[in-house]
Design brief:
The protein is mainly β and about 150 residues long. The chain contains one helix and eight strands. The chain has one domain: Immunoglobulin-like (Sandwich), CATH 2.60.40.790. Strand 7 and strand 8 form a beta hairpin.
């Protein structure tokens, strides 16, 4: 008789379920009934780095108008939303049709330190969004020289 630990099998099944569903729960919370199945949403690639004074985020968001980009900056996070609406009209054999599709980008990023959201600056050029956010004063690293005795 082969011994099988039921709890090991349950853990294996849970890992398989987690793998299949991936980050389904991390999908955009602003989805509307007009939004397509999740296939129309993409997470933009992002680079995030910090220096002494700022946190900078660079995201690839190709093919959108800067007016369609919505940013929400809090003291410890950045949320990027883009909703693109496309319409096509046509007439085939005397029948008119109008098709609409919705797609976009969404990404939520936890920032590595506290920032000042009111002073955030964003630029969008050639499909690259760059957001620069000053660090909060207490988050800036101040060096103090200490003498060893």
């Amino acid at each position: 008789m082969i011994w099988m630990d039921i709890f090991d099998e349950m853990r294996r099944m849970q890992r398989e379920i987690n793998r299949m569903f991936g980050n389904l729960l991390a999908r955009p919370s602003f989805a509307t009934p007009l939004a397509p199945a999740w296939g129309g949403w993409r997470e933009p690639l992002m680079d995030l780095w910090e220096d002494e004074d700022n946190v900078t985020i660079r995201a690839e968001i190709p093919g959108v108008n800067k007016e369609d980009i919505k940013l929400n900056v809090t003291e410890d996070s950045l949320e990027v939303k883009v909703l693109r609406k496309r319409e096509s009209k046509g007439e085939t054999a005397g029948v008119q049709h109008l098709e609409r599709s919705y797609e976009g980008f969404y990404r939520y990023v936890q920032l590595p330190c506290k920032v000042v959201p009111e002073k955030a600056e964003a630029t969008y050029n050639n499909g690259i969004l760059e957001v620069k956010i000053p660090k909060a004063e207490k988050e800036k690293k101040r060096g103090v020289e200490v003498k060893v005795q």
